[in-house]
Specification:
Largest sheet of chain B: 7 strands, mixed
Oligomer: heterodimer
Number of helices of chain B: 33
Number of strands of chain A: 29
Radius of gyration of chain A: 21 Å
Mean pLDDT of chain B: 63
Structural class of chain A: mainly beta
CATH class of the largest domain in chain A: Mainly Beta
Helix content of chain B: 40-55%
Strand order of the largest sheet of chain A: 1-29-28-27
Shape of chain A: globular
Strand content of chain A: over 45%
Order of helices and strands of chain A: EEEEEEEEEEEEEEEEEEEEHEEEEEEEEE
Largest sheet of chain A: 4 strands, antiparallel
Low-confidence stretches of chain A: 1-22
Low-confidence stretches of chain B: 1-37, 192-291, 365-554, 852-869
Chain lengths: ~375, ~850
């Protein structure tokens, strides 16, 4: 028995039985770890709006909670508060003044969390889990838009138990984005609907999907005048479509690109395709970040049609990402995204939120392609 | 329609009355569907989604069941119309279960029949079914086929099909015969004579699947046959429908397409009928996506996402699973409460009976009877205080009570001394027989106790009903539970029990539940006993003072026989299920002897262990392995501890515990365990590799955690008395056959002061244990565990040294490098030796759970493999 004999080497990268930390790939990019991350997969992240001093990060998780951290300038994160739903939280958003946070959950409700009083109250109810939630600030109204798997899109003024407006869709809402006066909604069965929000929300156009596979994430981008002009749509099979609403030359301006795939130059072996889990546009540069089931994030310049950077591979999928209001911080969450079903779910695996300096890496290429 | 096919034909029958009540799915009716959809459509949609989401989380037989209901529902919805979506659904269903094991399942056959009936070429489909031997022994198949043929006007062929069914002995034969008669009647009516007399085999030529040419001619539309089976065969799966004996070459179109190169078929992709829109969109869109995705592999659960007709996203899958988990949690909780209720009811009945018995008992009869061995044993245990042996001259004692004097040891005498007296009365048998008849003096008492019992019953029933712990658990709690399942399990199940017990304390006495005796106050039943005995039976040798003392003076050794005796009487171990008294002395037990225990004959195979106080044997009874512990003391302490363990664990957790019974002979106590295959731990460790030691360590940790979570302590850990039980798939566990040092924290809540436990002395002197830790006996367990682990690893006695950060075993002292596996062992010993002030459960859980946490998907064995240097 060699237990108490001569010292044996403990293989690098081995697993520590009693919690000894060993080298692993949970943070290959050496980014800042947010303290007290949620206990289950992180479904959504959102940074506070520019109207607020300082940076506050909200994260919703499958542990039914929504947490708020303050991100200090030195990169330190301070957990501030937490609210609970009775089901997993699927989406969060901020009000434009930063005083409130809205949360959407599998428990079929949406809540408004007043950060000043730390009180949360239900403001919306659906017949199915609510997959997306967005704050709409129009000149003549402000409201909350919720998209649900019950195939409705509802608008709430947060004071009435009944929606201001309820629009029926042909399919379940899978993802949505809002940049006033435009909202875009991607649904199951590759549905794609654009809404205009001026005066009152109404359907603007249904678009044939530019993608072949299930829609998974969508983000609106703006033009030079800061007006929404199109959207990036990510699919479950490693591809993102850049789609303009009214392009001068649709055939040329709209395009798709591959992402979140294994190195596919070798034609002998099949290329592994992963889901694109989230897309986020840089608020200053207009470049975009995508994160995928492959555990990588990538930065892209859609105008130059080039990739700016791809991260190392994390040991878990990246499930959510966002930029802070001035674009200096890129937050991304590493946790299981259920892409391989429940057999691959390990509840013991820790979840992380990382913060990365995004000031430089997302600057667009100088030259146009 | 015959019995066999009834219910499979709603398609033909038109829509059944079953109109979907999916409207009730939404409790409230929010003003949603004002737009295009009308309510029924929405309801149907909802129902459809319900089915599809059920499909997501069910597998195997359960999934088949869901499919069956789904398909039936769709048929009802389709209103008898042929429906491409339905067809696609059916194709998907039959493909999913294209496995020989289902070919005889009526549900599967039903789906095939529906598929055939709904298809444009039913004849081909039926022939294909026959070729694949789907439903060959089921009348429904032949009847449906014959009906189709009949519909085509081909009565002769229909008759032949039915004949074929008869010759295959398809069940139920009656339905085939009935159909056949109908067909024959029609045939004769049509002036055609059926070929009934000819041997059925002769007609088979026509039934056999035909070649391509014949098919094309006969069907004329075989090109339409849209069952593109291979296109939905999941990746990596062979084509299951093409059984080894299936006639591939001569098979119909479908069979041939199955036989074709699967890759080619896979590339043909998408079922045309599956999602009408999808296919067309596919074409329209293709141009937009730059670059074709050739030679790619989807790294996600594609099959799951499109299990039914609708597609799902990951989150929907997960939400479904989440909802399922929640439902199961609630179900589980209900089940556990029911179990508990049942348990309490049984206990209550038992107590009532005992109470009655006691009341009705004639005064001098205070001895223990043994089940079924006759009244002769009556006086067996009765012993006057001063002269235990006087029993033999007791006139009441029957012929059976012969007690060999020489078996009496000094300890026995002391046990049978004064201490036993007041409690003898409570040692009534679990099921009294002869004594149960009320003798005259006891009648009044009996009545009285009945009314009391009624009060007790009422009390408990009420309490059982209200004692439902909070049903809602917040997610933080359940998230915590998921990450550290074991921490929760112990305390919570404990809490459940205690919740009930403490509420019960006032009204419903459960003297045999230690939880109720934590206070110094006597429980009402005990008081009742005392009162009743002093009132009713003046002759009884009961000494109320002793009973009322309840607790022992704290300085007594909690493991002493005297204490044990008192405690066991206090909890009425004699009323525990599995407790038997035998009114005879124990016959000689040794290898190759037989021992009759409770009507069961145990063959003793070998002696496993021999100690001063007890011996352990391995035996066989009715083909089952048994372990017997024979003790010369008359204290069924081991039995008590194991029973309490079972009682305090949740039913699910206690299921894996070996079942223990106890037979109290006149001169010995036999504890009988029904166990799976077993081996002495010491032998096993000697044989096994280091990795084996590590796995034993993990079993030890588990065992100790089970004990601690039930408020039981092992006291000392003798690896010699451990048996390794092999449960088959569920892994190994340990059985400790020496529980003499074991302590019950619920029964003995006063374990605080020094030097109570002899085993602790050494550690107390060394300073590893401090008496200020209360109760230090918990820490003692952990230290003993460390000692045992040390012994297993090194075969040497453990020597501890004190370091700046606490106690450590000598071999792993300061000088040792603090890297590598040794650091893991250091951590283990550090935690075990320095647990003071912390919770033992958390220490044990930490030791057990950390490895799992750090090795994703790893089995617990991995941990220990790593530990084993």
């Amino acid at each position: 028995m060699s237990l108490f004999g001569t010292a044996t080497t403990f293989g690098a990268g081995g697993t520590g039985v009693f919690g000894a930390t060993t080298t692993d790939s949970h943070n290959p990019m050496k980014d800042v770890e947010v303290t007290s991350p949620p206990d289950d997969s992180i479904s959504c992240l959102a940074f506070s709006p520019p109207t607020m001093a300082g940076n506050f990060l909200i994260g919703g998780s499958w542990a039914n909670d929504v947490r708020c951290w303050e991100v200090q300038d030195n990169g330190q994160t301070v957990p501030k508060a937490q609210q609970m739903h009775t089901g997993p939280v699927l989406d969060v958003c901020w009000s434009d003044d930063g005083s409130k946070v809205f949360t959407a959950s599998c428990d079929k409700t949406a809540k408004m969390w007043d950060l000043n009083s730390n009180q949360a109250m239900q403001i919306a109810q659906h017949d199915g889990p609510i997959k997306s939630i967005h704050w709409i600030k129009a000149p003549n109204y402000s409201c909350i838009m919720t998209g649900s798997w019950d195939k409705t899109l509802k608008f709430w003024d947060t004071r009435s138990p009944n929606p201001m407006l309820s629009l029926t869709m042909t399919e379940r809402c899978y993802c949505a984005d809002v940049v006033y006066p435009m909202a875009v909604l991607a649904t199951a069965e590759r549905g794609l609907i654009v809404y205009q929000l001026e005066n009152q929300p109404s359907e603007f156009r249904r678009i044939d999907s530019p993608l072949k596979h299930q829609h998974r994430c969508v983000a609106i981008f703006k033009d030079k005048q800061n007006k929404p002009t199109g959207f990036a749509l990510g699919s479950i099979e490693g591809r993102v479509a850049i789609h303009y609403i009214n392009p001068p030359n649709p055939a040329k301006d709209n395009f798709t690109f591959k992402c979140h795939r294994s190195n596919g130059t070798n034609t002998a072996t099949p290329q592994d395709i992963y889901a694109v889990n989230a897309i986020s546009f840089h608020p200053v540069h207009g470049t975009l970040a995508t994160v995928g089931s492959d555990g990588r994030f990538s930065f892209w310049d859609k105008d130059a049609r080039t990739k700016l950077k791809t991260s190392e591979q994390l040991d878990q999928p990246i499930t959510a990402c966002c930029f802070n209001s001035n674009g200096n911080i890129f937050a991304y969450a590493s946790s299981y995204d259920w892409s391989k079903g429940h057999e691959y779910y390990n509840p013991q695996k820790k979840n992380y939120i990382f913060l990365r300096n995004a000031a430089e890496e997302l600057k667009p290429r100088n030259k146009k392609w | 329609m015959t019995e066999a096919t009834r219910g499979w034909q709603p398609f033909r029958d038109g829509p059944a009355q079953v109109k979907i009540q999916a409207v009730s799915l939404s409790e409230e009716d929010p003003p949603v569907f004002q737009d295009a959809c009308d309510a029924s459509q929405a309801a149907a949609q909802q129902q459809r989604q319900l089915f599809e989401s059920q499909l997501l989380v069910s597998t195997g037989d359960e999934a088949l069941d869901v499919w069956d209901r789904y398909v039936t529902w769709c048929l009802q919805m389709s209103d008898g119309q042929r429906d491409a979506g339905l067809q696609a659904l059916l194709e998907k269903a039959v493909m999913q279960f294209a496995n020989k094991s289902y070919f005889d399942d009526p549900r599967y056959i039903g789906m095939w029949i529906k598929l055939a009936q709904n298809s444009s070429v039913p004849g081909d489909m039926f022939r294909y079914m026959e070729a694949q031997e789907v439903g060959r022994s089921h009348a429904a198949f032949y009847v449906a086929w014959a009906q189709h043929l009949e519909g085509q006007g081909d009565l002769q062929q229909a008759a032949r099909v039915l004949q074929e069914g008869l010759s295959c002995n398809a069940q139920p034969l009656g339905s085939i015969q009935q159909s056949l008669r109908c067909v024959q009647v029609k045939l004769s009516g049509a002036g055609v004579t059926a070929d009934v007399g000819s041997p059925p085999r002769a007609s088979q030529v026509d039934l056999r699947p035909r070649g391509r040419k014949r098919l094309a001619e006969s069907a004329g539309c075989s090109v339409e046959l849209n069952l593109q089976l291979p296109s939905v065969v999941p990746r990596g799966q062979s084509l299951p429908l093409l059984g080894p004996g299936a006639p591939a070459e001569e098979g119909p179109h479908t069979a041939r397409s199955l036989a074709a190169d699967p890759r080619e078929e896979l590339e043909a992709a998408q079922l045309p009928s599956c999602e009408g829109s999808r296919a067309s969109e596919e074409g329209g869109v293709a141009g937009k996506e730059s670059g074709a995705d050739d030679n790619v592999r989807s790294m996600y659960c594609k099959e799951l996402l499109t299990n039914g007709v609708e597609e799902f996203c990951f989150e929907e899958l997960r939400a479904q699973r989440y909802a399922l988990g929640q439902r199961q949690e609630v179900d589980e909780k209900i089940r556990r409460l029911k179990d508990l209720e049942e348990k309490l009811k049984q206990e209550l009945e038992e107590k009532q009976r005992l109470l009655l018995l006691r009341r009705s008992q004639p005064a001098p009869l205070n001895q223990v009877d043994e089940g079924g061995s006759g009244g002769g044993a009556n006086a067996a245990r009765k012993r006057p205080a001063a002269e235990p042996l006087q029993i033999f001259s007791n006139p009441v004692s029957g012929s059976a009570s012969t007690m060999p004097d020489d078996n009496h040891t000094a300890s026995m005498l002391s046990l049978q001394g004064r201490q036993i007296q007041p409690n003898v009365q409570r040692c009534l048998p679990a099921s009294g027989r002869e004594e149960a008849e009320f003798k005259d003096p006891g009648v009044e008492e009996g009545r009285l106790s009945l009314t009391e019992a009624a009060v007790v019953v009422g009390g408990v029933q009420n309490i059982t009903l209200c004692a439902v712990p909070d049903n809602t658990r917040d997610f933080a709690g359940s998230a915590h539970l998921v990450s550290t399942p074991c921490i929760r399990r112990g305390p919570s199940s404990n809490a459940d029990h205690q919740g009930v017990v403490s509420q019960q304390q006032g009204a419903a006495p459960r003297p045999n539940h230690p939880g109720s005796s934590t206070g110094n106050k006597l429980s009402p039943v005990l008081e009742a006993h005392t009162t009743s005995s002093s009132l009713g039976s003046s002759v009884a040798t009961d000494d109320p003072d002793t009973s009322k003392t309840g607790e022992d003076p704290p300085l007594r050794d909690p493991c002493s026989g005297e204490t044990r005796k008192h405690l066991l009487d206090q909890v009425e171990v004699s009323s525990f299920p599995g407790y038997h008294t035998v009114g005879t002395p124990l016959p000689h037990v040794d290898q190759d002897t037989q021992l009759s225990l409770g009507g069961e004959v145990v063959f003793i195979l070998s002696k496993l262990q021999e100690e001063e106080q007890f011996s352990v044997f391995s035996g066989l009874s009715q083909g089952k392995h048994m372990v017997l512990k024979v003790e010369r003391s008359l204290l069924p302490w081991d039995f008590y501890v194991v029973s309490q363990l079972r009682r305090r664990l949740s039913p699910g957790d206690s299921a894996s515990l070996p079942h223990a019974r106890c037979f109290l002979f006149l001169d010995a106590c036999v504890t009988l365990y029904a166990v799976p295959r077993h081996q002495r731990l010491s032998e096993w460790v000697g044989l096994s590799e280091e990795a084996g030691v590590a796995s034993v360590v993990s079993s030890l940790l588990l065992m100790m955690r089970t004990f601690h979570s039930s408020s039981l302590l092992l006291g000392a850990l003798h690896t010699d008395s451990m048996l390794l039980l092999t449960h088959g798939d569920s892994g190994d566990s340990l059985l400790c056959v020496d529980l003499l040092s074991s302590l019950d924290l619920q029964l003995q809540p006063d374990l605080t002061s020094a030097s109570q436990v002899p085993a602790a002395l050494r550690y107390l002197q060394q300073g590893v244990l401090k008496t200020t830790d209360s109760p230090y006996q918990v820490e003692l367990d952990l230290v003993c565990l460390a000692e045992a682990v040390h012994l297993l690893l090194t075969k040497r006695k453990m020597v501890v040294v004190e370091e700046e950060d606490g106690w450590m075993v000598e071999e792993l002292g300061r000088a040792t490098a603090r890297v590598g596996r040794k650091s893991l062992w250091r951590k283990l010993f550090h935690l075990l030796l320095n647990s003071s002030g912390g919770s033992s459960l958390s220490v044990l859980t930490q030791l057990l759970d950390l490895p799992v946490a750090t090795t994703p998907g790893g089995h617990r064995d991995d941990l220990v493999v790593a530990m084993a240097i």
